[in-house]
């Protein structure tokens, strides 16, 4: 059986072919492309038209493989949305979550309803980038002109199928979904004055939306194939694509962002979860992904971009090697500090933070990257301890998936920091989860447990054992002094 997975990330997108054969899963990259936002003055927007053209190019290449594909599904990052007009046409601009308008969106939203009320309804952590605040920053006439909105992954599924639905894992990232009611929060929508008609029907992960639009299939020269809403949010797909057994594990989806959490059957929406800024997103089968969305390799991506602007070009493997060679623990930052969310010059922000906190500043690219990696590993330790306290569960191992799982230096640092075994891989967990959920939806796989078993038998994971406990315990004490214990909201 062959399937197509459209996996869209904040830096790049890819079309993957997935094949299930005799209990094994294999993945083939058909087309990978850049996802570069557009800047207009101070505003940052997504180039959705280019994403769709790149996906079409990928589909043309898929046709050339001469395989019989059963279905297709798209996943993407959360929180961002596309507005559609009365004719079902995309309304520009499609704003980027780092657009500066979110600042006044937060102010406008919290003037109408308090943060504790928002959390009590949604169970979603506070981040200024959340859809609830982005929509609050919109001009009401533009929202009134729109017929409906969709997440990025759902918008791609709509492009394929013509059926406008938003899948539950994506809807839950909007901070306008109630996980107890398993539907949109009428209270939040009304309190913020959003047009109710904007919010389409929420469907469960694994929903079959129907056949690809005949005109699109004809244009591409494709045989008919089914469009499925698997987990439209990439983290939901990635967690489904973790080769785990039992329940004593936690996960870390490592990429531009880091998402660390556990799978639960019920949301945790108490005051402690709210104050520590944890979130309750929906996973496959209505499960709860109780997690924290924290900074990730964005720190290094932005440093690399700044160095490139200065005429210093580094690839990621070179930066990792330089970090390996740099002395340990020269300085630490708090990756969750707001000044690292969208700085003009990331390396300069490192230096400013270190100077302000009485530390030596990193003086080379290797020292900057080592500081970023060590600080991330210590942030993972801090977050994991909070997870255990909030859930009352003892985690025995940490599964790391996504692009960051390829960074063995970070994997070893993470094992050292959390003092647990780290199982790294697959890097393409999102695409794997997307494909496996298509197989589940079509009845080709019996259960999620079986899907994860297939993945375990198909993909190689690398194990990192914890080392240097005393050194990392000392570093953790330093790190904790840089981090406020509770939310400032």
Descriptive account of the structure:
The structure is a single chain. With 489 residues, the protein is an alpha+beta fold. It has 2 domains: 2-234, ATPase, nucleotide binding domain (Nucleotidyltransferase, domain 5); 244-425 and 459-489, Nucleotidyltransferase, domain 5 (2-Layer Sandwich), CATH 3.30.420. 39% of the residues lie in helices and 22% in strands. It has 19 helices and 23 strands. The protein has a 7-stranded mixed sheet with strand order 19-20-18-17-21-22-23, sandwiched between helices. Strands 3-2-1-6-16-15 form a 6-stranded mixed sheet. A hairpin with a 3-residue loop joins strand 1 and strand 2 (12-21). The longest helix has 27 residues, at 365-391. It is globular, with a radius of gyration of 22 Å. The protein starts with a strand and ends in a 9-residue tail after the last helix. The model has no long low-confidence stretch (mean pLDDT 95).
Count of alpha and pi helical runs: 19
Report the average pLDDT across residues.
95
Q: State the CATH architecture of the largest domain.
A: 2-Layer Sandwich
What is the name of the CATH topology of the largest domain? Nucleotidyltransferase, domain 5
Distance between the termini: 50 Å
Q: What top-tier CATH class of the largest domain fits best? A: Alpha Beta
Spatial extent as radius of gyration: 22 Å
Instruction: Supply the number of structural domains.
Output: 2
Structural class: alpha+beta
Helix content: 25-40%
- Find the CATH superfamily of the largest domain: ATPase, nucleotide binding domain
How many DSSP-defined strands?
Answer: 23
Q: Give the uncertain stretches in residue-range form.
A: none
Can you summarize the main beta sheet? 7 strands, mixed
Please give the order of strands in the largest beta sheet.
19-20-18-17-21-22-23
């Amino acid at each position: 059986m062959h399937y197509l997975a459209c996996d869209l990330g904040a830096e790049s997108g890819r079309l993957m072919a997935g094949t299930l054969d005799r209990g094994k899963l294999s993945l083939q990259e058909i087309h990978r492309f850049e996802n570069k936002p557009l800047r207009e003055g101070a505003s940052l927007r997504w180039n959705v038209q280019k994403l769709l053209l790149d996906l079409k190019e990928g589909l043309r290449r898929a046709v050339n493989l001469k395989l019989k594909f059963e279905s297709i599904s798209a996943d993407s990052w959360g929180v961002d949305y596309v507005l559609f007009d009365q004719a079902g046409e995309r309304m520009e601009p499609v704003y980027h979550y780092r657009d500066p308008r979110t600042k006044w969106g937060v102010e406008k939203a919290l003037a109408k309803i308090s943060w504790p009320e928002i959390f009590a309804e949604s169970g979603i952590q506070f981040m200024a980038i959340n859809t609830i605040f982005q929509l609050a920053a919109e001009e009401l006439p533009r929202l009134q002109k729109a017929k409906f909105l969709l997440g990025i992954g759902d918008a791609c599924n709509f492009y394929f199928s013509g059926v406008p639905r938003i899948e539950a894992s994506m809807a839950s990232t909007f901070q306008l979904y109630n996980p107890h009611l398993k539907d949109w929060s009428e209270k939040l929508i009304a309190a913020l004055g959003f047009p109710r008609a904007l919010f389409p029907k929420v469907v469960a992960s694994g929903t079959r939306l129907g056949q690809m639009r005949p005109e699109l299939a004809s244009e591409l020269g494709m045989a008919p194939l089914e469009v499925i809403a698997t987990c439209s949010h990439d983290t939901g797909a990635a967690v489904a694509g973790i080769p785990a057994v039992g329940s004593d594990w936690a996960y870390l989806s490592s990429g531009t962002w880091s998402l660390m959490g556990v799978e639960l059957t019920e949301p945790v929406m108490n005051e402690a979860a709210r104050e520590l800024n944890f979130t309750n997103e929906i996973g496959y089968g209505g499960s709860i992904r109780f997690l924290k969305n924290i900074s990730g390799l964005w720190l290094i991506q932005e440093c690399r971009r700044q160095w490139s602007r200065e005429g210093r070009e580094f690839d990621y493997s070179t930066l990792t090697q330089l970090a390996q060679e740099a002395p340990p623990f020269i300085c630490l930052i708090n990756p969750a500090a707001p000044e690292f969310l969208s700085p003009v010059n990331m390396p300069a922000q490192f230096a400013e933070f270190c100077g302000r906190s009485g530390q030596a500043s990193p003086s080379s690219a290797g020292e900057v990257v080592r500081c970023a990696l060590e600080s991330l590993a210590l942030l993972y330790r801090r977050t994991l301890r909070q997870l255990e306290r909030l859930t009352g569960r003892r985690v025995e191992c940490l599964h790391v998936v996504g692009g960051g799982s390829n960074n063995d230096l970070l994997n070893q640092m993470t094992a050292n920091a959390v003092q647990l075994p780290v199982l790294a891989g697959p890097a393409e967990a999102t695409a794997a989860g997307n494909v496996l959920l298509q197989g589940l939806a079509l009845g080709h796989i019996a259960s999620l447990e079986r899907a994860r078993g297939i993945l375990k038998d198909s993909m190689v994971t690398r194990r990192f054992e914890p080392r240097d406990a005393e050194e990392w315990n000392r570093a953790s004490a330093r790190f904790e002094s840089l981090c406020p214990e509770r939310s400032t909201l």
